[in-house]
Amino acid sequence: MRLCVIPARGGSKRIPRKNIRSFCGRPMIAWSICAARESGLFDQVVVSTDDPGIAAVSREWGADVPFARPPELADDHVGTAPVVVHAIDWYVEAGEMPGEVCCLYATAPFVRGADLVAAHAALRESGACFVFTATTFPFPILRSLTVDAHGELGPMFPEHIGKRSQDLPEAFHDAGQFYFGDARHWRDNVPMFGPRSRMFLLPRHRVQDIDTEEDWRRAEWLFRAMQEAGE
């Protein structure tokens, strides 16, 4: 079986209840659930949560919530991988061994079903352990500036500060939208950001962390602008 796991704990502090707060007409998590379902890739779209309210909304939008996430996997310090492995292990104990598993974040309204389909194809074609979303930095990071404890400004990489942008290598970062890989690689704790992974590049305007109220407003503006532009 091919599994989509959407982690969505209930203890968000900077934006309370952000996983089920209304975002452009739907609960935030509904956008991820719908993208997963629209892709047609998954036998199960599962929300891993410790929160009954999130579970109820997720079910309303078509996701399965077959287990409650244990408290030790629901605090601020738990990473994503243990939550995904917990979901995989739950299915294994229930007698179903997942094959490919996609971890799709609950706050990823810019992800489309077509992205998941394309990333899955890239996973199959590349033979990589994981395919994850990434994007480019808008400015050469090797020309970054820094300020020391005395307030004095300086280049972070002095050997590159005088170089032209076009002469410096392009740099990328994790877009934090979804991560696709085989269940055994999740369970074996294969490093996500290593030579056995491949990036699925997204344009920068479709990548937005949503951790603060300012992030939220910017994401809504971008989302509406894309809708009006027919993107």
TrEMBL record:
<protein>
    <submittedName>
        <fullName>N-acylneuraminate cytidylyltransferase</fullName>
        <ecNumber>2.7.7.43</ecNumber>
    </submittedName>
</protein>
<dbReference type="GO" id="GO:0008781">
    <property type="term" value="F:N-acylneuraminate cytidylyltransferase activity"/>
</dbReference>
<dbReference type="InterPro" id="IPR020039">
    <property type="entry name" value="PseF"/>
</dbReference>
<keyword id="KW-0548">Nucleotidyltransferase</keyword>
<dbReference type="InterPro" id="IPR029044">
    <property type="entry name" value="Nucleotide-diphossugar_trans"/>
</dbReference>
<dbReference type="InterPro" id="IPR003329">
    <property type="entry name" value="Cytidylyl_trans"/>
</dbReference>
<keyword id="KW-0808">Transferase</keyword>
<dbReference type="Pfam" id="PF02348">
    <property type="entry name" value="CTP_transf_3"/>
</dbReference>
<dbReference type="InterPro" id="IPR050793">
    <property type="entry name" value="CMP-NeuNAc_synthase"/>
</dbReference>
